[in-house]
Amino acid sequence: MSVTDPALAARVEAWIDSAGGSADEVVRTARAVLDAGFEPASVRIVVDDIALEDTTDMVEAARSLDLHVLSARAESMNDRLAESTAEFLFVVRWGVVTGDLLPKAVGFLDRFPGTDVIYGDSVTDAGLPLLRPMFSPIRLRSNDYLGPVVVARAEVVRAIGGFRSESRRAQVLDLALRAAASGRSVALNPQVLATEDLAPGDFAGTSAAQTAVVARHLADHGVEASIEEVEPFIRRVHYAIVDEPLVSVVIPTRGGSAKIAGTDRVLVVEAIRGIVERSTYQNLEFVVVADAETPDEVVAELEELCGDRLRLVLWDAPFNFSAKMNRGAVAARGEYLLLLNDDVEVVSDDWIETLLGLAQQEGVGIVGAQLYFEDSTVQHAGQVYTGGVAGHAAFGWAGGRDDSIRSMATDHEVSGVTAACAIIARDLYFEVGGFTLALPGNYNDVDLNMKVRATGRSAVFSPWARLYHFESKTRDPRILESDLATLQGRWSRRMQVELYSRMM
Amino acid sequence: MTNAPSTRWPDTRPDARVSSEAELAEERLAFIDRIIGLEEQVRELQAASRLNPTEAVAVEANLAGIKSSLTWRAGRVVTLPIRVLRVVKRRVLG
User: Fold this and answer.
1) Integer Cα distance of A418 and A380 in angstroms
2) Residues B24 and B36 in one domain
């Protein structure tokens, strides 16, 4: 244990959260923190003496290393925060920090002075990477994915009011939510900062404390929602729909048929039948952009199914998906456009409420659903962009498969969502010029997502809105060189490294 | 024998045809997209980084990974004579 860089050590303070850990584990964590170059006088073991658990061992452990004990009471933490001269506060929640934690974390904060709170990647004891997503405020409501080490500028923690007594056991989550909400920059430092055990169990009511923090955060920002605990540490936020806006379901079609599960079906008719019969959201209109070749009987069936909610729009030019969708958007009267392919079938009845509730959140631009192939494997759980090209996250995954941060059970930010099923505010669609005509067949949705994100809004995926998408797994994946050139001409530098769905 | 495409339904649904106002709105969409597209193309060509801190560090790590790969190092060895000749040529010819 040695301080190798006194100047650096003077700028930092570490608080080791002992909640849920044994004394031996906390000692292991503390030794690693000291080995990383912290001054012993700047390391505190946070002990929750309000909880019913016996803290004697923990206090003894701290004494054995000549470290201070800090009560987990918010008043004690705020007192310490006020008297500390450190520039950066490291909160170590579990695991073993890397020996080069200080240069990595402080180096990042020094290089990017506009960054206020950071978290990082980690590895398991076996060396498997645990890669965290770029800062994702929607995901944070469902899962505190920030990992074992979170570093904040001390002045920022003071500026946002320090720690709150009502956030006991979930102070870091509360801090990150408040920092982001107050316009501070929370960022992923994509470097390994610690080694940790996988899947810690719930401890001392931490999961419930996190739920309470999220509920308070939503209430503070006027977001009406209910929170369902999916499992410990994983929450589903059910957002209340504001003002029941008209949603225009925009579907391009040529009235084609296909054999699904051994039965011939007219795709657009069955897609709309499913929505009419199953969807619980009622304020809908159906904008069907139909080729002139669409059979009369298909049109008649649509009229019968939708009644006066049908807006039929003629497409009488060569195929151009982008132009067809733009035509539908122009004809639509809804406040929101639900972009939909005609070869889908609704699985979850509340899919529109799920998508719309997210789309109404501040900062969210476009929201997509989880799509399954006919054999119930996953076709789409968000798009991944890497090396200037796009693919689907979790493509081909069997049901039940997930990554280490439970991406298949949490609403979360993604690089993009497929336009096979996506909702977007009509105003935003027009603000970004809709689908580009320069990409008539492929990648037009990637371009749309990038345009939306360029406005500062996010693309969000929800695993709770589920549909079948009968697009063939064996669809010809060839992309025209010209399509790729168009896409990369606009966005190549921003599509090099995937930073949202890093484990999928 | 060919099947002539049916055009009956558009004839019975004149409201499905695109109005001139709608055509203008579609053109406006395309125009906005064209402007955004050109702006983004210019930004792609600018030297200034378009990346946020997380992206910048990730891209640098990616690049460092590529440069430390066996493939990269082997390529550097293979292309060494060419690179030496280029330097010599530049120094000799100015």
Assistant:
1) 8
2) yes
pLDDT exceeds cutoff 80 at A51: no
Give the number of domains in chain B: 2
From A406, A404, A412, A382, select the one nearest A395 (Cα to Cα).
Answer: A382
Residue A500 placed within a domain:
no
Of B18, B41, B50, the CB nearest to A327: B18
Percentage with pLDDT > 90 across chain A: 85
Residues B38, B59, single domain; the answer is no
Supply the Cα-derived Rg of chain B in whole angstroms: 28
Whether B2 maps to a domain, the answer reads no
Instruction: With beta carbons under 8 A apart, name residues in chain A contacting B22.
Output: 327, 330-331
What tens digit of pLDDT does each residue of A55-85 get?
788 888 888 888 999 999 999 999 999 999 9
- For chain B, give the number of residues: 94
The range of the structural domain enclosing residue A27 comes to 6-237
pLDDT band at A476 (very low <50, low <70, confident <90, very high): low
**Contact: A491, B40; criterion CB under 8 Å:** yes
CATH number, residue A83: 3.90.550.10
ipTM of the complex as predicted? 0.88
Minimal C-alpha gap between B91 and chain A (Å): 34
Q: Do B29 and A490 touch (CB under 8 A)?
A: no
Angle at A351 between CA A346 and CA A357, to 5 degrees: 160
Q: Are residues A92 and A203 located together in one domain of the fold?
A: yes
Q: Residue holding tokens 């996988």?
A: A198
CB of A111 within 8 Å of a chain B CB? The answer is yes
Same-domain check for residues A49 and A185: yes
User: Mean pLDDT lowest for which of A3-17, A109-123, A208-222, A288-302?
Assistant: A3-17
- Structural domain of residue B64, as residue ranges? 51-94
> Which letter does DSSP use for residue A116 in this model?
-
Looking at the fold, whether B59 and B84 belong to one and the same domain comes out as yes
Residue A85, both tokens: 């001269």
The predicted-structure confidence for B24-75, as pLDDT tens digits, reads as follows 999 999 999 999 999 999 999 987 887 899 999 999 999 999 999 999 999 9
